[in-house]
């Protein structure tokens, strides 16, 4: 049976091989020390490969993975966080925070009104806290609106 | 003695109103962070580093603030252990064993008072120990050359992987992944880029704060959504806080023993507070005449692990300050704090910047008294805060994580990287791969490589130089033992099961 440990071990094994290949292309300057910039990465990749081999040969018992609706929920959360990371700069702090916090809140407790309220509260409350109490340089609203 | 002269200087800095205020805020915030399940000392401090850095706090105030948070979180962890049977953070796990049964029997107030005082005793004694031991260890650390440091880093990884995880291969993999990530960026010696793939953002390497906040805080979001969060409603009613002096006095030896054991466990690299409280509890249980009362609400079973984990928190600062090698996840985060503030821990810190060390120690002593007051007479305030529903708390924590990284780096790339580390943290948790070695690897990778290369320069490429001095050989032996011994001890050191929650809880 394919266990998650085995799959992960194989994936990391390939990553380690790629890491070694990439390390081989590191340029050394003429001023280098006896070891140079490649040896330590080789050692690290070696440890990864040995550990992966152990994981492939002796995997731990299989864990329970999210399926169906739960998987969709997790993907939604990931999309929200990535979208938030992209939008906070152009749209300012408040609007993306209200939306992202509202969706995350709804995911934990699927009642729309409290979720919307906690999104609004967090968006505005955290902005006040960070901007005016802690003095961080945050942009509140989209740059275009602020002129 | 110059320890007292130094301490007086430290108090001179720490007793200013501004520093006192920061310590008080830190203690308060820290206790909240500790009390909230899912937020512990490591992710709490990790969240606050970028924010306090962006606020422009200078080194000493920032250090005072965040170490107060660290101590506070250690105190606060017990509150939800006792009232909810959910450890507020990992080191508070052992406190649930007797704390929750005590609370169910109607002694919640006693359990909170005893554990609060035990936290104080443990933390206070450990801070005193820190004061006397760290200058001595700093003297020893002067003898360390690159070979010894390389061996010391190996020791930290080996013991952390050996003791702190269930599977040595996974711990080694985690450490190697961290080390591998730390290699990204410009090589210090030659100035050549490594593993950047032409991406400009990666030239400076992966910011360890991005990794820490991602692995510790953002990963929690995914975990929380998947498990749908445990309900954080208080299961046990808490009456008026009264002090039962007789019961408190009866636990004095448990507190002292717990402090001693915790302190030693804290100093050992890789052990940290969780092991401290575990060993303190197990010792108390095995030395008791009547073992059957443990796990059923024995006050000694609350006092010992709390004294143990707080003493370990203090003890863990010693290797971090004198050698620059953190022993646990939380001290790894504190090391990240020092590096962010441009303070290089190590023996030189004690001679070149004594004001940093001694004002830190003085404010830890002060913070302990503040925490005693916050956590015993005023504990009800924190019980109220525990009632914040998770659907407000969790989005809030997530947004704070983003704000911290955003105001620190100002780049979307770093926030995306943080989310990627969050996914990685969630996946690793699923696969039972520890994330603390990853952090440690990212933090120490460059120093470790640097020491190895310097050792090779000194010996002109002779690898046996790494094993040439008695100190280095001792460290290597300790590293091997620390990695291998837990495989055999695992059967002996089994954790006792947590008390079951589903009995006697009103809906």
Automatic annotation (TrEMBL), chain B:
Keyword flag Transmembrane helix: yes
Highest taxon of source: Bacteria
All copies of domain DUF112, residue ranges: 20-440
Keywords tagged on the record: Membrane, Transmembrane, Transmembrane helix
Annotated transmembrane regions: 20-39, 46-71, 111-133, 140-163, 169-186, 206-225, 260-281, 323-344, 356-376, 388-409, 415-444, 465-489
InterPro entries per record: DUF112_TM
Protein name: Tripartite tricarboxylate transporter permease
The organism's taxonomic lineage, starting at the top: Bacteria, Pseudomonadati, Pseudomonadota, Alphaproteobacteria, Rhodobacterales
């Amino acid at each position: 049976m394919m266990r998650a440990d085995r799959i992960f071990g194989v994936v990391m094994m390939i990553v380690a091989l790629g890491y070694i290949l990439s390390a081989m292309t590191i340029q050394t300057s003429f001023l280098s020390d006896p070891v140079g910039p490649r040896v330590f990465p080789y050692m690290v990749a070696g440890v990864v490969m040995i550990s992966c081999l152990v994981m492939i040969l002796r995997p731990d018992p299989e864990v329970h993975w999210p399926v169906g609706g739960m998987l969709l929920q997790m993907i939604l959360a990931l999309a929200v966080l990535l979208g938030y990371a992209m939008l906070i700069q152009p749209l300012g702090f408040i609007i993306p925070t209200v939306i992202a916090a509202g969706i995350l809140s709804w995911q934990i407790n699927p009642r729309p009104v409290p979720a919307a309220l906690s999104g609004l509260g967090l968006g505005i409350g955290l902005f006040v806290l960070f901007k005016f109490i802690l003095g961080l340089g945050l942009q509140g609203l989209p740059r275009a609106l602020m002129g | 003695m110059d320890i007292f002269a130094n301490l007086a200087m430290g108090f001179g800095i720490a007793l200013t109103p501004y520093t006192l205020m920061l310590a008080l805020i830190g203690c308060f915030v820290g206790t909240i962070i500790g009390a909230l399940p899912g937020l512990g000392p490591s992710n709490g401090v990790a969240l606050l580093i970028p924010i306090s850095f962006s606020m422009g706090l200078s080194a000493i105030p920032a250090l005072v603030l965040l170490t107060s948070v660290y101590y506070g979180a250690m105190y606060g962890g017990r509150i939800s252990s006792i009232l909810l049977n959910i450890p507020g953070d990992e080191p508070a796990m052992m406190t649930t064993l007797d704390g929750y049964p005590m609370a169910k029997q109607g002694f919640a107030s006693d359990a909170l008072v005893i554990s609060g005082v035990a936290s104080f005793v443990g933390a206070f004694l450990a801070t005193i120990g820190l004061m006397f031991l760290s200058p001595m260890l700093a003297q020893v650390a002067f003898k360390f050359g690159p070979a010894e440091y390389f061996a010391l880093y190996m020791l930290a990884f080996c013991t952390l992987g050996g003791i702190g995880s269930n599977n040595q291969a996974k711990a080694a993999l985690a450490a190697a992944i961290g080390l591998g990530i730390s290699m990204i960026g410009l090589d210090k010696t030659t100035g050549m880029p490594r593993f950047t793939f032409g991406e400009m953002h990666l030239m400076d390497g992966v910011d360890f704060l991005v990794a820490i906040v991602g692995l510790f805080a953002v990963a929690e979001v995914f975990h929380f959504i998947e498990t749908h969060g445990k309900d954080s409603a208080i299961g046990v009613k808490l009456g008026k806080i009264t002090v039962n002096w007789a019961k408190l006095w009866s636990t004095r030896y448990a507190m002292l023993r717990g402090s001693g054991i915790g302190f030693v466990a804290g100093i050992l690299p890789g052990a940290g507070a969780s092991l401290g409280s575990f060993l303190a509890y197990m010792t108390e249980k095995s030395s008791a005449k009547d073992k059957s009362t443990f796990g059923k609400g024995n006050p000694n079973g609350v006092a010992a692990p709390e004294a143990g984990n707080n003493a370990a928190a203090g003890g863990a600062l010693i290797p971090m300050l004198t050698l620059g090698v953190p022993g646990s996840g939380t001290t790894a985060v504190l090391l990240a704090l020092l590096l962010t503030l441009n303070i290089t821990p190590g023996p030189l810190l004690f001679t070149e910047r004594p004001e940093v060390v001694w004002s830190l120690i003085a404010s830890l002593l002060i913070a302990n008294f503040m925490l005693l007051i916050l956590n015993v007479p005023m504990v009800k305030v924190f019980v109220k805060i525990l009632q914040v529903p998770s659907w407000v708390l969790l989005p809030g924590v997530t947004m704070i994580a983003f704000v911290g990284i955003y105001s620190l780096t100002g780049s979307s790339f770093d926030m995306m990287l943080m989310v990627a580390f969050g996914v990685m943290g969630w996946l690793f948790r699923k696969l039972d791969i520890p994330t603390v070695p990853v952090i440690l690897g990212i933090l120490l990778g460059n120093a470790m490589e640097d020491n190895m290369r310097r050792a090779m320069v000194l010996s002109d490429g002779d690898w046996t130089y790494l094993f040439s001095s008695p100190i280095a050989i001792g460290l290597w032996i300790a590293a091997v033992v620390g990695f291998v011994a837990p495989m055999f001890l695992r059967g002996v050191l089994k954790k006792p099961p947590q008390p079951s929650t589903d009995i006697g809880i009103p809906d």
